[in-house]
Structures are given as C-alpha cells and as structure tokens.
Amino acid sequence: MGKTPVVRHLGRHDRVSAISAISVSPRRKRLNLYFQLHLRNIRQQQARDFLRHLLRHLRGHIYLLWDGGPPHTGRLVRDFARRVRRLHLVRFPGYAPELNPDEGIWKLAKGMLANGCPCDSAELLATVSEALLRIRHCRKNLRACIRHSGLPFF
Predict the structure, then answer these.
(1) Is residue 6 one of the residues assigned to a domain?
(2) CB-based contacts of 109: which residues, under 8 Å, 6+ apart?
C-alpha cells in the first residue's frame, strides 16, 4: 500500500518579485517582453526604475497599461510620468486581471516553474529569469497573451 509522502522544509520564505511588460511596436507589430527581478517586494522606486528601463529600450511614445497597485500609483511614479512626455500611463479598471496580457506571461511562467525546488534565492532568481527568457523568445506565446486579454493588437 502507498504511503503519503512527508515533505520537510526549513521554513524559509525566499522570494523573487518581478515587474514586466509586453511591448508591441506600432509599425511592424513586433513583440518583446521586458522584465526585472528583485529579491524584495517591488515598491515605487523599482516601478520608476522599470519605467526608465523601458524608456531606454523603446523609441517613441510608450503607452503602458497597468493595474492600480500601490507601486504603480505612488508619488515617485506619478511625478516621473509627468516629467516624461513620451510616457503615457493608462490604468486598467479596478480589478480586471483578465484584461492584462502580462497575467498570461505569469501563468506561463508559473507552469514552467511548477514542482521546482530551488535551494536558495539565487537559484530561484536564475530559474525565474530562465523561464521568462524562454517566454520572451516565443513570440507566439506573447501574441497569445495579448489575444487572450481581448485587447486590440494596436
């Protein structure tokens, strides 16, 4: 007869926090995934730094659709967005994860990471980064995330 397995752990709560965005170029409809990973919770400063990252890598006007979470709506982010004319922040309605294509990215990533057991935060960081890089290189998945959200493909 089978026996229920017992999993023992050290009670650690290592984590990786992530911020990401799918970009769609207006002319050629090219897709890309940008992300940053952090070992602590993402706050206003990390959200602002991510916006700077996007501005360095993307030309022209940037329309960023995101939820109204505290890191996205803080004073640092608002002041930064006000100073940068080519950055346009658009909020999703209240609680509408089904409209956010980025939620599809995280669903894919969680599927890739399921049943993993990293030894420490460095290994966790590496496996999350590897999963996101694989998602980034599969344009079909990026396109499916946008399609599933119901948003227009610009």
Answers:
(1) no
(2) 128, 131, 132, 135
